[in-house]
Amino acid sequence: MTTHPYDALMDITARPKAVFVRGAGSYLWDDSRKRYLDFVQGWAVNCLGHSPPAIADALAAQAKRLLTPSPAFYNEPSLKLAERLVANSAFDQVFFANSGAEANEGAIKLARKYGSLHRNGAFEIISFAGGFHGRTLATMSASGKKAFEPLFEPKVAGFKKAKLNDIASVEKLINDNTVAVMLEPIQGESGVWPATDQFLQELRALTEAHGLLLIFDEIQTGMGRTGKLFHYEHTGIAPDIMTLGKGIGGGVPLAALLATERASCFEHGDQGGTFNGNPIMCAAGLAVLEEISKPDFLKTVTETGLLLESELQKVSARHGLGGVRGRGLLLALDLKLPIAPGIVAQAFEAGVLLNAPQLDTLRFMPALNVTRAEIAEMIDCLDGILTRAGAARRVA
Is 219 annotated for ligand binding? Predict the structure, then answer.
């Protein structure tokens, strides 16, 4: 076991001492050569698994050609990726960023610019309790995460919180200062709570009736995660603005802000960033989109998601747990008890990586090309942990 300088990194989260050195597909290896089955995948980042050849080859090829010419100039990969995203979505223009938080920050700025130009200076954005939009000051303010409330005061003003799947709670917050409504189609950090298709359709009708922008944060749900390229495609409606992150880069820092022509109102100097639209990152994004666009890829995601959902429901029935929430390969299991961190720790020791967004919830975000055998391996591990936990409770 190598000795590592752990103290040199800021201590901003509890991490196990394992140091990962290699990844391939659904598996990771640490520096002691222990193998782990990964159902977290960087929080839905590695949509094609760890170090997929398509992305590795694209990065290597682009690195030999051009690292960056500066965002003051066009580069080929960013133009190609923007064109592909526009061609495959309801949007007309793309701004590339480095993280989901930065894309969401851009969406907030774009909405406020729209309000200044078209709604007499309106600047308020309605977001939702339980939502999570990032860790910049503005995106933390837009989030409805309880743990954020006492942090880094004062918050950025202008965000009112509605209740997910309650259209009346949105309508009563609308006033002359409102410019947009912003939400995740599925709230990930709060425990994988989906907005219903009906609610999203009602929200589109409400925003159109009031002349407001509708912003979908698809940082976690986009790029095939729910069985469509973008989650909004399930609903029959489209937002005015959408943000992408996580899966769009397949493991590298890439994000995007997409908008319709009507909502695209940035002027020169309003928005930018040193590495935004970087050729290497956009080359990775092109490789991701190429793989996801292959025939039957998204159909397989849907089928695999249904299999995982079914297996989790069987586990729940065997152990007297709660329901399974989510869509595609973004799912959560309600444990009904605050035992999720303990299960995550035991699974880690057994060589399986799981995530507990809440004390009573497990979240599952495997690679989109996860296999049936890998799902069975994870289920066997989880079932064994729950069986031992149930036996321990009975003895106690």
Answer: yes
Angle at 272 between CA 267 and CA 275, to 5 degrees: 155
Q: Is 204 annotated as a binding residue?
A: no
149 annotated as a binding-site residue: no
Give CA 251 to chain center in angstroms: 12
- Residue 167 annotated as binding site: no
262-293 confidence digits (pLDDT tens): 999 999 999 999 999 999 999 999 999 999 99
13-50 residue pLDDT tens: 889 989 999 999 999 999 999 999 999 999 999 999 99
Q: Is 95 annotated as a binding residue?
A: no
Known binder of ligand: residue 262?
Answer: no
For every residue of 45-96, DSSP letters joined together read: T-TT-BS-HHHHHHHHHHHHH-S---TTS--HHHHHHHHHHHHTSS-SEEEE
- What's the Cα-to-Cα distance from 254 to each of 52, 98, 288, rounded to whole Å? 16, 4, 11
From the centroid of its chain, how far is CA 325? Answer: 16
Please answer whether residues 131 and 97 qualify as being in contact, where contact means their C-beta atoms are separated by less than 8 angstroms.
Answer: no
CA 363 to chain centre: 12
Would you say 196 is a known binding-site residue?
no
Residue that wins the pLDDT comparison between 74 and 11: 74
Place of tokens 């995530």: 355
Is 132 labelled a binding residue? yes
To the question of whether residue 220 is assigned a binding role by annotation, the answer is yes
DSSP symbol at 379: H
CA angle (156 as vertex; 93, 256 as ends), nearest 5: 20
